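User: Hi! Is it possible to get a structure for several chains at once, not just one? Here's what I have:
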Amino acid sequence: MQYKDYYAVMGVDKGATQDEIKRAYRRLARKYHPDVSKEADAEKHFKEVGEAYEVLKDPEKRAAYDQLGANWKAGQDFRPPPDWDAGFEFSGGGFTDGDASQYSDFFESLFGQGFGSAFRSSQRGGGGFHAPGQDHHAKVLIDLEDAFHGATRSITLHAPELDPRGHVITRERTLNVRIPKGVRQGQQIRLAGQGAPGIGRGAAGDLYLEIEFRPHPPYRVDGRDIYLDLPVSPWEAALGAKVKLPTPDGVIDLTIPAGSNSGRKLRLKGRGIPAASPGDLYAVLQIALPPADNAKANELYRKMAEELAFNPRAGLGV
Amino acid sequence: MRREEEILVGLLLDEECLLTLGELSRACRVHAEWIVELVEQGIIEPRGDDLRHWRFSGSSLGRVMRVQRLQHDLGVNLAGAALALDLLDEIRTLRNRLSIIDRDL
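Assistant: Yes, the chains can be modeled jointly so their relative placement is included. Here is the combined structure:
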């Protein structure tokens, strides 16, 4: 088990006042809150900060933690000294007001014994204590095509659980879940009763699956609409043409109107993600130039330069 | 093994999924009174004229849970949570737009 430097996690020094610790916590909680933060590993950081605060905000726990000594380094192999907490009294308050199973082994070894036992024995059932199980949240990665046709996805979840002896173990379970046609990025699927088991006669929690599309070149998705860059030659854009267009639903023919310019968006109504009011597919034209890498091509470009009176910078007034 | 072959069909929380006040508060494990407060703050908007006919879209459920977390974890009040949710939604829309414009992505 690794030693955790709670002061480093909070970015305060060991002499910080309770007020300084509280301020540091509030700032970091805002920074790493999984609903707010875009940082990578936000959830992991948020839990670390929560655990550090759980110890440092409570003068009793903080004093006990401090007397482990100042020589420990974060990450160092740690074993609590015997009777390390002798002489410290933890006042009630139960395990923590957070979710106990979310804390590290390090925390567990220091603060999980003793006052944790009441919590555990009640979990083993029997007692008069009942509480609903926690909801679980997970992301499910799907392909864009799945939103068009629906799919069944097998999802492996790792959930912390208490074994009969009261140790936190990670249980793995696999669920096969129906992904309905027409789902969009960020939508949630609720599976009632598939969360954590309840305590006593409490009902099980629910499982929420958030839909996330795998990056899917050449497509980009905005709600129900799909965008894709469509390369066209200068003559296709200038003269108009019928070209092939890939869509998540198969290749279709698309008419490029004569006189199209780069960046023009051609809208294909109803070719986006299916629904009662389906999304649209937008082909964004990108004019691709043939390279002037041989005598013939050079000659053609030179001829255009001579015969077409064209100033692409007319709009800039030069 | 038998269980593994079973295919679970969940409830897709989209606009077409409509929840009553009771269903929404049970799913979020909060009192109906608290949901009513969220409606009064304009955080979620039910269809229907009066409490008994209120129907909430599936996306309201995610909003209610986010407000719960923001309140519990960051200590913001309802007005603050409402503001945070609106700004977060706007950021998400803008980020998405940006990824569509940005051709390097």
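Chain B is about 60% helix and 10% strand. The first strand of chain B starts at residue 7 and ends at 8.

User: Great, thank you!
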